[in-house]
Amino acid sequence: MVSDWFVAGGTLGLAGGTVWLVIVTNRMVARAGDQLALEQRRVEASQRPHVYPESPIEWVDGTGRYGGPLTWREALPVRNGGPGVALNVRGKLFFPPPSGVVVPIVPTSLAPGESADLRFNWGGERQKGGGTGPGATSSTRTSPA
């Protein structure tokens, strides 16, 4: 009879230990999942492009390469300052009413550190009272210095 009590106690102890191991394992799996999600966000951030407009003085003044056939009205200089490739960089200029003109930017891609002139497609989309202008189909690129 005493031995039965020892067996029952041992069984209960084993069951308690198993429950404790389940709880500890679940916590470890949750922490590992959190660490994996954090690492994934870190890797994504290290490959994310950061495209921003540049305003070289020749673009602001309308001189140099922006004073001839390519003017500041037709191009917006941008740079990819991030470590990742910027694919299909695009945008639109919205003019408020009464013209309501929407001018799309011709999509382009930029390598890390690369600069380019985004071209406005003045002959593209129009809303009510839209205007017209010269269309553009390419971008001018410069390599990182």
Please explain how this structure is put together:
The structure is a single chain. With 145 residues, this protein is of the alpha+beta class. The radius of gyration is 31 Å and the shape is rod-shaped. The chain folds into 2 domains: 1-46; 51-142, no CATH class. It contains 2 helices and 8 strands.
How are the secondary structure elements laid out?
Elements: H1 2-46, E1 51-53, H2 57-61, E2 75-80, E3 86-89, E4 92-94, E5 102-104, E6 108-110, E7 115-119, E8 140-142
Antiparallel strand pairs: 1-2, 2-7, 3-6, 4-5, 7-8
What are the salient characteristics of this protein?
145 residues; alpha+beta; 2 domains; two-stranded antiparallel ribbon
Summarize it.
This protein is α+β, with helices and mostly antiparallel strands. Helix content is 34%, strand content 21%. It folds into two domains: 1-46; 51-142, no CATH class.
